[in-house]
Amino acid sequence: MTLHVLWPNTALMTVLAGAVLMAYVAFNGMLLVWLERKVSARFQRRLGPTEVGWAGLLQSAADVIKLLAKQLITPRHVDRPLYHLAPVLVFVPVLAGISLFPFDRHLQLHDFNIGLVLLFALAGLGFLGIFMAGWGSNNKYALLGAMRAVAQNIAYEIPLILATLPVVLLARTMSLREVVEAQHQLWFIVQQPVAFAIYFIAAVAETNRAPFDIPEAESELVAGFHTEYSGMRFAFFFLAEYTNMTIVCMIAATLFLGGYIGPSWLPVPGWVWFFGKVYLLLLVMMWLRWTFPRLRFDQLMSFAWGVLIPLAIVNLLLTAVAIKVWR
Amino acid sequence: MSLTSYLPIAVLLVIALGMAAALTLLARLLGPSRPTAEKLLPYESGLDPERTPQLRFGVQFYRVALLFLVFDIEAAFFYPWAVLYRELSCSGEVFQGVCQGQSTPFGLLLMLVFLAVLVLALAYVWRKKALEWD
Predict the structure, then answer these.
(1) Do B49 and A140 touch (CB under 8 A)?
(2) Residue A150 · residue A236 · CB < 8 Å
(3) Quick check: pTM over 0.90?
(4) Is the pLDDT of residue A151 over 70?
(5) Nearest CA in chain B to A89
(6) Where are the domains of chain A?
């Protein structure tokens, strides 16, 4: 089944769309850093950045300029190819990942019939970059952080995937656009609240955010896998992290919250609904950070294998049986 | 869907790669370069590192990696099954998700067998305490 999209698939248009997406990724990263600082500050009864620009809005832009002007330190004993390639490998797949989403009914670069699987495949490349950074840095904090990050990411990848399967079952497709189109009557979160909860918990863990921020636990590992990175190379990790947060929230909005679909009696364009849902979920992620204490590593692993995965399997089974009974 | 339809993704990857290279080059041009011996040491909270960190590592990490391989591949097999679930559990034609012929338990049984292997493996691993961290 082919659906028409706004952007035709010519080479020039793809390059243009890539530039627009690139600009969005950079803008979104800066916005989220500002938002995170403001939200964190409010939780601690502080004001956060206020000096640069209105309400400190230009603080992130100033930080980018500072990072660009910093010395690029390459420590002497690093494994050079791995060390140099790692930030790039973490950063490159997220741009391709963010291009897969239908932002509005007619605003999607290309609709793949295996869109969901493609997204997870691209996310998998990022883990490789994290491990390369940790191994190549020749630093014990970096290596410990990378080992933890990979173990955590692969453990939570399974409940993440298993939680998306009931949605695929209901929508009978892996294409992101068709999944959204299947939610005109009812958002899938109503039929699949358990899957949504599992997905969101696993997504927070996948993005290495508190309470699952063990890979970069500042109080024990300095900065985890990117301890030895400074200046622009550090900025790549930072940008990739915030873009990954956006991507997992975009998946949640697409699969469970109806994507670009909102109440039809409201004259609001679809992309406003889409981004509204995404940024609402991002705010929830920032809220979680200041609500829950960090888990211990063994608790983290047994929570994934002992609670989330069995729960996701049972949920998948019940969904399959329910479809059998009611259809 | 042919392989050429994935070309936009390849183009985007190349753009991102170019962007990353350009920014690194820009940082190299804008930033100062004054390396000192202390600055180039591995960071270890102020102490000089005594040995390389690339030593033997806890075996639990490898067990998790092995388990992940099994579960991830199994999960990948679930996707096509989930898409075709209606067709698998219907003896006739499926029109807009509704079975036109006789309903059969084939689709459900197919997954039950598959899931049983998965759950049995997980239970075995759990009982063997292979996922415990000490």
Answers:
(1) yes
(2) no
(3) no
(4) yes
(5) B17
(6) 74-326
